[in-house]
Design a protein that fits this description.
single chain, alpha+beta, Rossmann fold, Dna Ligase, domain 1, D-amino Acid Aminotransferase, Chain A, domain 1, 5 domains, 8-stranded antiparallel beta sheet, 18 helices, 39 strands, globular
């Protein structure tokens, strides 16, 4: 394939993205002396990437279609700011052929590959055909133009089950379904079509033979406009949830020098065939027998690019900008060295036990981990900032580099223990569990089904705090009520009667009594249920550890500790021994089980209603699908908690629903039978 694109020097770079990637690109631009222009939606007006830019341009409302996906608005922002180049980051329009072409037509240098290369790789069916011509191994499958169910049923029977249904036009796990039997295929096709149409504007699908227990391994390539192409080794992205990556590392524990050379040569071959320019990623499935198969190409910078930067010492954003300006790639393949090991975690706003549901709200307390050698934290969040329903749920990337894999993992565990995020549920504790898992530590047993295989049903279990965490939370509530003259929180003299508080978290409930005693506090924790009995703690030398009253320090039963706290409306957030907790203060605490028992279906997160499967007065059975919601690039189906008749249907397709907003009620059959 031959392709051309505008390549010339430029001076002002418009960054057509937001959050942590916009900040990352700004760092690379300033390193080379470029002026950086940010764009922002109304929801992002006070964001970090806006504040740090040399110039920022408003581009529209909070919905992506009105701002970050609005090509005309982005081109107008480039004209208004005097930008002569545009970097798309990742997500949004980063792999949009029309945006790349429109930018060039407007006279802007597009910091990315030629539009033709984006188009060739933007559709999985066309991409597999192109890779086949470049002699790159591809997974057996069906990429035909006939898109009816009958064609897919025929193809699946020829391929053999299990098969993977995939959206032809996108990635990120959306529109992807694993199908193990013929009778499950029609429903999977319908679900994948719906999700693909919403996410990518196309409901075209492909089929692939499902490779059991594979690793997800990708090769980073760099290419210039002078015909030079190299690869920078591989990244292993096998730890995933809902087909989306959460832990990435480089190099892969499963790839030796010979396999790296073979996969790297295949990636370079394919990039040459495309006439590729800039940074790109060839994604492969690595089967247990050592064979690898092309999945797709990401024609942009990857979220996980930082691990490649850590082990190679190369700045990928810098090279994107240099290549776009016409410079020659002066790095020989033989000069690329892999130094040590790097690992990245994606900290996301999600409720893990609820099925990794994306969460929104105000991050009342945000403290990235302390600096340590080999640690990098990329984020776009300010304390008190909101996690919005319109965009991706990722809060930050934590990246550690060490001499060995074990050292990199140890640094990440330490970073997680120090990273304070209170106010919005996150996957922080789950990430820590992954890092501490013995199979993950051994590396050899990791594959794309690692999360389900290792954690399984325990993923839905709500973690329970120990009595010490409850004691700290109760003391934090009391400390916020005290009118201490200084930092010290000494027991009052003479001692008043004990102070009582009730704390609740999910199904747990604790009664706590604080008693001033001489120079100590006695804290009695009594659970209302469960296997554990009451516990007593003695707290001494307690004081506020910071002027903002965001952390406490004290000696609890002889152990000196520092905890972070974040009071909220009828709640107390606590970060204790590397784990976040959000305790409720009754009567504000409300049981979700009670809501389910009543037949009321509420929105589990703030998001958009995509589809309603039932009509008012319709009969439903327990477990029937009711509503499909979407937020932060993820879809979630709400099911009937009980059998009965649909009543009080308040949901509207295309409308926005707030978290906990009632959407419909099911009048239960038993209640109907007893009605007069």
């Amino acid at each position: 394939m031959t392709s051309s694109k505008l390549v010339r020097p430029f001076h002002t770079l418009l960054i057509a993205n937001r959050g942590e990637i916009a900040r990352r690109i700004m760092r690379g631009a300033r390193k080379l002396g470029y002026r950086a222009v940010a764009v922002y939606s109304d929801a992002d007006a006070d964001s970090l990437h806006v504040r740090e830019a040399d110039l920022a341009v408003r581009i529209g409302g909070p919905a992506p279609a009105d701002s970050y996906l609005n090509i005309d608005a982005l081109l107008a922002a480039a004209r208004a700011s005097g930008a002569d180049a545009v970097h798309p980051g990742y997500g949004f329009l980063a792999e949009n052929e029309a945006f790349a072409a429109a930018a060039e037509q407007a006279g802007l240098v597009f910091v990315g590959p030629p539009a033709a290369a984006i188009g060739a790789m933007g559709n999985k069916a066309r991409a597999k055909a192109a890779m086949g011509r470049a002699d790159v191994p591809c997974i057996p499958g069906y990429q035909g133009t006939e898109q009816g169910n009958e064609a897919f049923v025929r193809a699946a029977s020829e391929i053999g089950f299990p098969v993977m249904v995939k959206a032809a036009a996108g990635g990120g796990g959306r529109g992807m379904r694993l199908v193990r039997s013929p009778d499950a295929l029609p429903a999977a096709l319908a679900s994948a079509r719906s999700e693909a149409a919403t996410a990518f504007g196309s409901d075209e699908l492909i089929l692939e033979k499902a490779i059991e227990r594979p690793r997800h391994v990708e090769i980073q390539v760099l290419a210039d406009s002078h015909g030079n192409v190299i690869h920078l080794g591989e990244r292993d992205c096998s730890v995933q949830r809902r087909h989306q990556k959460i832990i990435e590392e480089a190099p892969s524990p499963a790839v030796d020098a010979a396999l790296r050379a073979s996969m790297g040569q295949a990636a370079v071959r394919s990039a040459r065939a495309l006439g590729y320019q800039g940074a790109g990623t060839m994604e492969f499935l690595l089967a247990p027998d050592g064979r690898y198969y092309f999945m797709e190409m990401n024609t942009r910078l990857q979220v996980e690019h930082a691990v490649t930067e850590a082990v190679t010492g190369l700045d990928l954003v810098e090279w994107q900008l240099r290549v776009a300006a016409g410079e020659m790639l002066d790095i020989a393949q033989a000069a690329v060295r892999i130094d040590g090991h790097a690992m990245e975690l994606r900290l996301t706003a999600e409720d893990v036990p609820a099925g990794f549901l994306p969460q929104t709200g105000v991050m009342r307390r945000w403290r990235p981990p302390q600096h340590m050698p080999g640690l990098r934290v990329d984020h776009g969040l300010m304390e008190g900032g909101a996690i919005l329903p319109y965009y991706d749920s990722m809060i930050a990337k934590l990246v550690a580099h060490g001499r060995t894999r074990e050292e990199a993992c140890r640094k990440l565990r330490r970073a997680l223990e120090q990273c304070v995020a209170l106010g919005v549920p996150t996957n922080q504790s789950f990430l820590a569990d992954c890092l501490n898992d013995p199979v993950f530590a051994a590396a050899s047993g990791v594959h794309t089904g690692f999360v389900e295989e290792r954690f399984g049903a325990s993923l839905t279990a709500r973690p329970v705090p120990d009595a010490a965490a409850v004691a700290w939370a109760a003391f934090a509530v009391h400390a916020c009520m005290m009118q201490a003259a200084g930092a010290a929180l000494a027991p009052p003299q003479p001692a008043p009667r004990p102070w009582h508080v009730v704390l609740a978290l999910d199904a747990g409930r604790w009664e706590v009594a604080l008693t001033a005693h001489a120079d100590a506090w006695l804290i009695d924790v009594t659970p209302s249920q469960g296997d554990t009995g009451p516990a007593r703690f003695e707290m001494r030398r307690a004081y506020w550890a910071g002027p903002d009253h965001g952390s406490l320090e004290a000696e609890l039963d002889g152990i000196r500790e520092n905890v972070s706290i974040s009071p909220g409306p009828n709640a107390m957030g606590l970060f204790h021994r590397g784990r976040p907790w959000e305790f409720q203060l009754p009567p504000a605490h409300r049981s979700r089980a009670g809501a389910l028992a009543s037949g009321t279906v509420t929105a589990p997160f703030t998001g958009r209603i995509l589809h309603i499967s039932v009509a008012a007065d319709a009969h439903v059975n327990a477990g029937d699908p009711l509503i499909i919601m979407e937020a932060m690039k993820m879809e979630h189906t709400l099911y009937a908690p009980v059998a009965g008749r649909v009543a009080d249907l308040a949901a509207l397709p295309g409308s926005q629903a707030s978290k906990d907003q009632p959407l419909l009620r099911i009048a239960q059959e038993a209640a109907l039978e007893t009605a007069p």
